[in-house]
Sequence to fold (476 residues):
Amino acid sequence: MTLIAIGGSVGAGLFIGSGAVIQTAGPAAVVSYALAGALVFLTLRALGEMVVSVPAGGSFSDYARLAFGPRGGFTIGWVYWWMYAVLVAAESVAGATIVGQWVEVPGWALALVVLLSMTVANLISVRVFAETESFFSLVKVATIVAFLVVGGLYALGLWSGSGGSSVGNLWELGGFAPQGWVAVLGATVVVLFAFGGVEIITIAAGESAEPERGVASAITNVLWRIGLFYVASILVVVMVVPWDSARLDRSPFVVVMETVGVPGAALIMEIVVLVAVLSVLNAAMYTSSRMLFMLTRQGDAPRVLKGTNRRGVPVWAILLGTVVGYAAVVADYLFPGRVFGFLVASIGAILLVLFLVICASQLVVGARVRRRAPERLTLRMWAFPYLTWVTLLGLVAIFVAMAMLPEHRQALWSSVGAVVVALLIYEVRRRVGSEPSRLVLGVGGRATPEELDAIAGPGSAVVVGEEGGGHSPGAG
Fold:
């Protein structure tokens, strides 16, 4: 479970995209990563409380359904699926770009090979997905640990040939925040999206042997991993390489290794970045298919997508999740080099919208569980509801910042547009289909829809016994 969280969140955004953040915020990029990491960690903690206390099969789409009704569950479920379907396409193109540096094959053909390979891995079984993701994650973890050790020694002047400490880069080139603190906050907007993927553990929980224990452990440990992989890595970069270096347009990790003098650093990091891209692609394909499968169980997606093979893999849901990827392959053939940026922009602020909904749902669901079945709160959101409100307001501040910063407005409004489209589709589904259900589906063997409704639903008359364990659903 922990390795799945790492696999989903540590990708090309850290290995490559961190250079642009450093050039915007200077050495204070460390603060940008710390602020975004804190918001993500608290959001994940709020989500984890709901996962453990209310074991719903559809993760946060079901928590949105519990808190805000069928419209909320339908909209967030489909918006989340769309984000990862587009991410599958984007990572396929990114992987092809990296491989294209080594072989002379058209980018669209390489993207097709990458996409087909990961599709086959996901179609075989859940275990193959988990083992593949674990391997990719271990490679990334080992690389980051080696990077921190080597880069840290060099920055402190303890590496052979370093020529002395370079820690002064933190304040000697215009100060710690040379572009001002507004730039630091603006960079936080970009950094937030680099953390996307940690929420995948709650999707994977339903297929793990011990979901409550796995989620609790992964969420508890994610804080120090955020500190190690993101904040500490960026700290090493800004100590070793001047923040205004033009070389940061490339991967900052490659630049640091070249500065230290590690032979073959560029090739090593290119391989690691490829592994990171494949890891995120693998996790994105898994997540999009599972969310789509969960939507079929609620009647919010065509029934044909509900089918699984004898190994329990939702084949049709996986294949539909790759449709955007194959469309991207065709687009890359027609418009070489222009597809990746378009795909990334279309994802935009969807992750921010999802985090906002998670916190808002936890305010509602958390209050109901505390009132009706407090014994289920074995993993709690700290200082509820105050810390949840602080997190929600922090996310709203980033939303406002995106609306005020010209370079982020297009991504923001395209993401808002995706939400509006999902809401319109829901209205069509409500009018021409069966009546949407406000009940959520429990995880087999642990909770029924009626039990979950009694614990956290909107319309149940709950009777809690002296032991705190009894309840009875009302008419709703």
Summary: Confidence is low (pLDDT under 50) at residues 460-476. Residues 34 and 227 are 8 Å apart (CA to CA). The chain has 20 helices and no strands.
